[in-house]
Amino acid sequence: MAILQKHIKHSNLELVEDASLLVLSEVGPQNKTGETGDPFWSRPVARIWTLVLLIGTCLLYCARVAMPICAVAMADQFKWSKKESGIALGSFFWGYCLTQVLGGYISDRVGGEKVLLLSATAWGCLTAFTPMIAHISSVPLLSLTLSRFLTGLLQGVHFPSLASLFSQKVRENERAFISSTVGTGSQFGTLVIGGAGSLLLDWYGWESVFYFSGFLSVLWAFFLWKHLLKGQGPIISLETLGSSSVQSKNTKVPWNKLFKKAPVWAVIIAHLCTGSTFFVLLSWLPTFFKDCFPDSKGWVFNVVPWLVAIPSSLFGGYLSDHLISLGFDIAAVRKLMQFFAMGVSSFFTLLLCRTTTFSMAITLVAATMGLQTFSHSGVSVNVQDLAPSCAGYLYGVMNTGGALSGVVLVYFSGYLIDTTGSWASVFTLVSVLNLLGLSTFLVFAEARRVDIEVSKTKCQNIHL
Fold it and tell me: Does 12 score more than 70 pLDDT?
C-alpha cells in the first residue's frame, strides 16, 4: 500500500510538471525542451543572427549620430542659433523615450524580429529622406525637429526588441556573449559614422551623411527580410496581438505582483543608474577634454575610449558565459559583471578628479568606458533571466527610465559645472549614483524566473 501511495504521489508530481511545461511552451522560452522541439537557435544559426544584428545595431547608431555630426554645417546653412540646434538635436531623445515599453510589449507577443524589421525599414527611409525634408520645407527647423522626433520614436523599439528576441531564442548560458556582441554595435556605429561621416561631410556636404546611413539601413532591413526571415511578411495585425494576449492569460503573468518583486526593482534601479551616468559621460567628456586639455586632439579622445570599449564588451560576455558553463551560480556571475561595470569603473571615474595630464585622463576615461560595457553581461541579461516571457516589456521600462533620467542628469551636470566651476562635482555625482545602483543590485538581484505563475486551477483539475 505504501508503495502504491508513493507511486501515485510520484505520478501526480510528473503530471503537474508536464502540465507546467506544456503551459510554458505556449509562450516562448523554457529551460527544458520537450517533444515539441527546441525553441532556441542552434549555434550556427545564432552566429548568423548575431552578426546580422550587430550590423543592424551599428547602422542604428550611424543614423542616430548623423544629425550631431552634421549639426554645425546645418546650423550654418539654415542660420540656427545654439538654442535652435539644441531643439533639433534634443527632439530625438523625447521620441526615443516614448516607444520603449510599447516596442517591448509588442515584441513579446509577435516576435522581436518582426518589430526590428518594421522599425529599421521606417527609420532607415526617414533618415535617407531627411535632406529632402529639410530642403522642401519653408521652416527647416520645424521639419527637422519633427523628423528627429519620429526617428527617436522608431528607434526606441530596437533594444527592447533585442531583449525579447534573445529571451525567446538564445539559451541562458549563451545570452551574455550574444547580447554583448550585438551591444558593441553601438560603439562600432559611433566609430563608423565618426570616420566615414566626417569624410562625407567634408567631400559632399551634410546631405551625404544622411544618404549613407539611411540607404545602408534599408538594405540591411531587406537582407534581414529576404535571407533570415525567408521573405515572410512582417505584418503585425490586431488579430495576431489578440491571439498572443490569450496565451499570456493562460500563463497568468502577474503584472500587479511583478513590480512588487525585489529582483525586478533591483535590475530596474541598476539599469537606471548605469544608463543615466553613461549619458552624462557621453555628453560631457568631450567638453571636459577641451576645457582641461585645450591642445588635445579631438580624434584621440573621441575614438580611443570606443576602441577599448569594443573588446571589453566582447570579453565581458565571453567571461560571463564561460563562468556559467563551469557551474558558477548565474546570479553571482551577473553581480560580478555589474560590479566591474559600476563599482570598478567608478573608481577610475573618481581618479579623473585629480588627474593633471592628458595621457592619464584618456587612460582613465578608456578604462571607465570599457568597464561600463560589462553591464551588457549584467543587468541587460538579468532581465531575460527574471522574465523571459515579457523581457522586452521590462527592458522597455528600464530603458525609458534610464533615458529620461539621463536627459535630466545631463542638464543637471551642466548646472553643477557652471555653479561649482569644477569637473570633480560631476565625476563624484556619477560615481555616487553608480555605487547606489550597484549596492541595490548586489543585495536584491536574483536569476530565477519571477514572471510566470501557472494557474493553480489547471493543476487541481488533474485527477487519477
Answer: no
Residue 311 makes CB contacts below 8 A (sequence gap 6+) with none
| Sign of the Cα pseudo-torsion (253, 256, 259, 260, in order) | negative
Question: Which residue matches cell numbers 533618415?
Answer: 127
Contact call for residues 100 and 157 (beta carbons, < 8 A): yes
The letter for the amino acid at 365 is V
- Which grid coordinates are listed for 287? 567638453
DSSP structure class, residue 224: I
CB 274 within 8 A of CB 434: yes
Angle at Cα 16 formed by Cα 10 and Cα 18, nearest 5°?
Answer: 100
Residues shown for the chain: 464
Which helix (H) or strand (E) segment is 98 a member of?
A: helix 82-98
Strand, coil or helix: what is 185?
A: helix
Q: Tell me the pTM.
A: 0.79
Calculated CA dihedral for residues 267, 273, 275, 281, nearest 10 degrees = -160
pLDDT average, residue stretch 246-261: 63
69 pLDDT band, cuts 50/70/90, is confident
Write the pLDDT tens digit of every residue in 75-126.
899 998 877 888 888 888 889 989 999 999 999 988 999 999 999 999 999 9
Q: What's the whole-number mean pLDDT along residues 360-377?
A: 94
Question: Taking CA 459 as the corner, what is the angle to CA 453 and CA 464, rounded to the nearest 5 degrees?
Answer: 165
Q: Is the dihedral of CA 132, 137, 141, 147 positive or negative?
A: negative
More confident position, 24 or 200: 200
Instruction: Annotate 245-256 with DSSP letters as a single string.
Output: HHHHHHHT--HH
C-alpha of 93 from chain center? 14
> Is residue 96 within 8 Å of 391, Cβ to Cβ?
no
In Å, what is the CA distance from 243 to each residue of 157, 212, 358? Answer: 21, 40, 59
**CA-based angle 33:39:44, to the nearest 5?**
115
> What CA–CA distance (Å, rounded) separates 158 from 186?
12
The overall average pLDDT reported for the chain is 84
- CA 173/CA 316 separation, integer angstroms: 13
Gap between the Cα atoms of 104 and 451, Å rounded: 15
